[in-house]
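Archive transcription. Copying these from loose printouts into the bound notebook so they stop getting lost. Printout 1 of 2:
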Amino acid sequence: MLQVEHVTKRYGKTLACDDVSFTLDDGSVTVLLGPNGAGKSTIMKSIIGFLKYDGEILVNGLPNKSVEARRILGYIPELPSLYPNLTVSEHLEFIARAYRMTDYKDRIEMLLKRFDLYDHRKKFGDELSKGMQQKLNLCLGLLPDPQILLLDEPMIGLDPHAIKELKLVFEEMSAAGRTLMVSTHIIDSVDMLWDRTVIMQHGKVKANVARRELDESGESLTDLFFEVTEGLSPEDSSLSENAADGAGRDDGAEDAAAKKPRRGLFSR
């Protein structure tokens, strides 16, 4: 379980996060939505321990910056940060050793094959295309099999096959009791995957809604997003959907993941 309690973060006079609170339950997939500048990346970096802030963040009851919490908390940033002089395989080897993993060779091979990087495993970081860099970024975050994983715009730059695989990974991790928070602007890409949505605007949490509650209301996630951030009715939001920054339709989002998750990547 991840608990964010009354977190406030300032950059000088700018209030990036204003008394933000929410809880992520075990085995849940939470979608973090909001316009540019809403505070999404700031709260994620605060959770992972990159920033100083006021308030409290607990990971399974432990302070998020403790060594014990860091071992079970994972983060996949929006922009890959790769070493130009390390190959794809060496990047994964580096992460495995940093986490003191054992018997990780098969897992590395499986991830490389799953995200179509196996044939590129000897390429250096600066030789990869942007899409391949993002795939490696995902593999690096998934390799330690964290109990709680934060992903910032994970589908940007991915091809349809990789998007499909990532959706399957979400399903598998949730089924295995892992906890995920996915920050994105592409609402349609996660519309069928989430259990709860947290919508931020101007550094505040404007909505914290379970999927069950939204289904009972008959609204879609896009409807809710526009109502919260722009004060639009569902009819108005449908007209504005393609024009708004937060609801751009991703080419790979139509390639829906299979309902039955694959076995073997994650276990309880």
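Printout 2 of 2:
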Amino acid sequence: MKVIKYMIVGVIMLAASTHALAQKNLVVNGGFENELDGWVDYSAKATPYMYNSGKMSGAMFSSDSSKWTGMHQIVSLPKNTQYILMSAKIKADAVSSGKNSWNGALFLFETLNKQETKMGEGINIASVTGNADWKLYEKAYIIPPGITKIKLLFALGYVTGTMFVDDVSLKVITQSEFEKYL
């Protein structure tokens, strides 16, 4: 009888730890509380003047529509990851429209192999123009074979204006959680 109890407890603990892993944010400093630690920036800044939560956010400012201003982070996925959920809150102030339909305050991602080679095209999650208050943008995604990393990018893509980013997250999710986004 004791053996069965131990087996049941073991199964429950395994299930709980698997669920906990599925809920862990894999993004380093997604709230920008440690300024831009963990992020590669190209003219991005951290700011305490505008944020969704905590005390900081990431910010991009541009007065030159011929430039790309932004930041990115490469996130390693746990082995055998099948489904992920990426999300961020974005606020836009006076973001102009660019020449192309994809220009704007951008949230996109690229899939990478273990050598960090880009596999396929980047996928746009959000392109915001004009003025927009804080809004959650999210995308559930099936990880193709050979993909071991995700590159999350935020940028003012050849436009002028200001973009704020906060609460950036990338989590491993289950198939049933993924199906909620279909």
